[in-house]
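Exercise 7.
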Amino acid sequence: MALAATGIDSGDTAWMLVATAMVLMMTPALGLFYAGLVRSKNTLNTFMMCVAAIAVATVTWAAVGYSIAFDGNGSFVGGLGNAFLGGVGFAPRQGTAIPELVFMAFQATFCIITVALVSGAVVERMRFGPFLIFAALWSVLVYAVLAHWAFGGGWLQANGTLDFAGGVPVEMGSGFSALAAALVVGARKDYGRQALLPHNTVYVLLGAGLLWFGWFGFNGGSGFSTGNPSVLAFTNTLLCPACTLVAWFALDLLRGRKVTAVGAATAIVVGCVAITPAGGFVSPGWAMLLGTLAALPSYAIIVWRTRTRVDETLDVLAAHGTAGFFGILFIGFFAEAAWNGVSDGLFYGNLAQLGDQALAAFAAPAYAFGVTFVLLRLIGAFTELRASGREEALGMDVVQHGEEAYVTGEGAILVVPADDERVAAAA
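Solution. The predicted structure, written as tokens, is:
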């Protein structure tokens, strides 16, 4: 399609407007996914953390986050030339044929969902007020910095690291920050003493399905056009999670002789995460292999984590940190210039690309974990991060919001059996 006199391609812009809306929808979808995984008394609070991410991260992104991520070519962090969207208008973003306003909005949705992802580590016990403070600071000090490193002109990008759609800032950034958050906030009072089961697996499956749908915009939009990179990433976003699902089914059957709904939903997310950094850099065949293999480390981390005292509640480390780490390294082996037009990996004779990917795979988690750990310690020095034992027992919905998720009529509360009661009844 011919460019307009302004240098804007209307087809590319239309696709990016749709992709931006699709990625924004992923955060409520994540809220549904997360809400189904917690106990009924924490349903609203869990969903509200995702809603809060939309509000807080959008404001911080427009104020300073976008500028820190994309203004200038500083190695570690960008400048403040675009603070409060100064200079961001209808002119095309460098390297694209879309208005910079659209580019900014698309990137904002990435920041939003990454903040929401981290909440999965601390649901059912972190107070809402401190979470808002954390979300605002984390979106600037961790997400925006990692985004600059990976695709805002920072040192990882300059060094040659390939990251198509956010394996560094979104996936590894959220996963390893979640681990730090879980360690600082601590385990739920009932963790390890009673079964803390998902209260609504239908929510979980529906949320995962909507996330997969949104991921076509997440990955497909990261080519910023309707050209080959977006087409390749879009197709790989179909293939990779499907293969992860098949592999996860096999693992579930081998381990417990039953294919679980929560496992299936988790597999969808793991496959989407794994292909996020690699989507526009590997062929469809390699994407299918990536989906199959990515199931193994993520599944193993979930099994291992449940045997520890680390209450990283919704396994953000396994689903996002581990799968993102695997996807980043996979590029180093199987990137194929014949498909991506950029670089080959080790399998095609380019050892240097594997080194570039390995550097990102270790630097990003270290930064995310370290800054998150210190940030939460500092916030905790001024306010209580978590609810009391009594408040946890009552449920975060009532304590933090004065509402409950399940009502059958005016003033009537639907009593949902506690997880331990349901386990006893099933037995």
